[in-house]
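Structure tokens please, single chain.
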Amino acid sequence: MAFDEILAQVLALLQREQRLSYRALQRRFALEEADLDALKDELIYAKRLAVDEDDRVLVWVGAGSGPHGFSGCLFSHRLDGRDRHRLHSPRDSHHDVGRHS
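Here you go.
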């Protein structure tokens, strides 16, 4: 299967499921490590449709109305259990973003 076909299938699956482990993706699509890395680069950095969680899970953040399908949210490309509070909108940036809710 070509990379673009795999990307389209992973994208559809991620939209539907919202969260996918990297191990499950590797097994489901018979991906080599380099293929998985390319998918992560495309979805997390190039298209900004997902974030990495704890180096184990791909998490859907979706496309918004901003340029290139990016919603304009400010976030770290990697989230761990302590950093989920970093996900906020630009209008919240003048508030104390370190405050936990």
